[in-house]
Amino acid sequence: MSEADTPLKAHPPVSPESVEYWERCAAGKLLLQRCRTCGNVQFYPRLLCTACASDELEWLEASGSGVVKSFSIIRRAVSAAYEPDVPYVVALIELAEGPTMMSNVVDCDAEAVRIGLPVQVRFEAISDAISLPVFAPA
Ligand SMILES: [Zn+2]
Q1: Contact 81, 7 (CB under 8 A)
Q2: With contact defined as beta carbons under 8 Å apart, do 131 and 26 qualify?
Q3: Number of neighbouring beta carbons within 10 Å of residue 73
Q4: 10 band by pLDDT with thresholds 50, 70 and 90
Q5: Which of 21, 56, 83, 91 has the maximum number of C-beta atoms within 10 A of its C-beta?
Q6: Among candidates 107, 134, 113, which has minimal Cα distance to 122?
Q7: Cα 48 to ligand 1 centre (Å)
Q8: What is the pLDDT of residues 98-115, one digit of tens each?
Q9: With contact defined as beta carbons under 8 Å apart, do 109 and 82 qualify?
Q10: According to the CATH classification, is domain 13-137 in 2.60.200.20?
């Protein structure tokens, strides 16, 4: 299979609210939003605070630490692009700052993943512009 035939993984949609988020991911930083009005911290990037509807949101650089809240081991690839990855882990990661994000747990045996496992963010570049935050055991 030539490089031109290599199937592509799904790319996330980049909205006006998330441009800064994706730019910082490409630089190896994980951003959350913090409300200047009520202090709520949220993920994913939005126009308004999910707690009080304020539009006074600022970026907060996350520690990248979290724990596995729930997970599933994917054994059948959804498309050819993911076949080299199976089995892989899709997980909900509860970040130290509070929000939960869906991601992958990488760099470990899928069978070793457990609820409560401490993890740390790292970034997987899928294009020049997009790096996905993924998590590895801390
Ligand atoms: Zn708020």
Answers
A1: yes
A2: yes
A3: 14
A4: confident
A5: 91
A6: 134
A7: 8
A8: 999 999 999 999 999 999
A9: no
A10: no
Residues with CB under 5 A from ligand 1 (ion): 35, 37-38, 40, 49, 51-52, 54
pTM of the model: 0.92
Per-domain boundaries in the chain = 13-137
Please choose, from the candidates 57, 62, 66, the residue with its C-alpha nearest in 3D space to the C-alpha of residue 100.
66
By the 8 A CB rule, do 80 and 10 touch? no
Residue with structure tokens 């050819």? 80
Span 54-68, average pLDDT: 98
Encoding tokens for residue 7? 């199937």
Q: For the chain, what's the residue count? A: 138
Q: What is the DSSP pairing of strand 88-95 with strand 100-105?
A: antiparallel
